[in-house]
Amino acid sequence: MTTLIDKLQWRYATKKMNPALRVPQDKLDRILEAVRLTATSSGLQPYEVLVVNDPALRERIRPHAWNQAQVTEASHLLVFAAWDNYTVDRINQMFDLTNEQRGFKNEGWEAYRQKLLAMYPQRSAEENYQHAARQAYIGLGTALIAAAEEQVDATPMEGFDPAAVDEILGLKAHGLRSVLLLPLGYRQVEGDWLVNLKKVRRPKDDFVTEV
Ligand SMILES: Cc1cc2nc3c(=O)[nH]c(=O)nc-3n(C[C@H](O)[C@H](O)[C@H](O)COP(=O)(O)O)c2cc1C
Questions:
Q1: Distance from the CA of 76 to the CA of which of 43, 108, 112, 118 falls in 20 to 30 A?
Q2: How confident is the model at residue 169 (pLDDT cuts 50, 70, 90)?
Q3: For the chain, which residues make up each domain, given as ranges?
Q4: Which helix (H) or strand (E) holds 139?
Q5: What are phi and psi of 202, to 5 degrees?
């Protein structure tokens, strides 16, 4: 398995993880780093990734995630949690960080900051959360590709009750709302109904249009 396409053929939304197998720390770190490096709208990175290590927390989450076994049986459980709103502070922090790291202020960039400040904080928190959540989905996509690259199995999940997960993880106090779960681990071939089934995708002609 050498090409990225081979690895994307190999990956699938794993239904049964082997609880005895742990993803090595360096692989986990590279998957998280890929997410940190991926693109977000205006570079605001309006979400965070929680690595839920506490088994008791994972036990509590599972019944609120359609009782999906991967929540407790995977090696690691990632939670993608988006900002509940775009505030002046949050926008300024990202622009200030950029100026600090690049070591200069740029007129065009500052004008862009003012444009966002005039736009985002005026919108409803829900509209801003929805926009932030879309950025978290880009992170999920990147994590799926990075996991495949590391030959680590993953199950993207939106089958859970976000309000319950927010409560369990105390996300509201941090201005965050859970968007997606991503168990990472290694497939347990016995007991996984999906593992040997053909990957089904629409043919390219139905999917890509050249105009
Ligand atoms: C945003 C998103 C949410 C998903 N939620 C779940 C889920 O809660 N449980 C699950 O078993 N699979 C879930 N899936 C997996 C999809 O069903 C799966 O990716 C799709 O059928 C394509 O198959 P493959 O990923 O195995 O190639 C989700 C996938 C995505 C992208």
A1: 43
A2: very high
A3: 4-84+126-207, 87-122
A4: helix 125-149
A5: -60, 145
Ligand 1 near 65 CB (within 6 A):
no
Mean pLDDT of 25-29: 98
Q: Which atom of ligand 1 is nearest to the CA of 12?
A: 26
Note the pLDDT of residue 1: 74
> Among residues of the chain, what percentage have pLDDT more than 90?
99
Residue 98, both tokens: 């950029």
CATH numeric code, 4-84+126-207: 3.40.109.10
Say whether pLDDT at 145 is over 80: yes
Residue 10 near residue 1, CB atoms below 8 Å: yes
Could you tell me if the CB of 67 is within 6 A of ligand 1?
Answer: no
Ramachandran angles phi, psi of 26, nearest 5°: -65, -35
* Token pair belonging to 51: 């690595």
Residue 54 Cβ contacting ligand 1 at under 6 Å:
no
**Which among 49, 50, 115 has a CA at the least distance from the CA of 86?**
115
In sequence order, what are the residues at sequence separation of 6 or more whose Cβ sits closer than 8 angstroms to the Cβ of residue 55?
72
19 vs 21: CA distance, rounded Å: 6
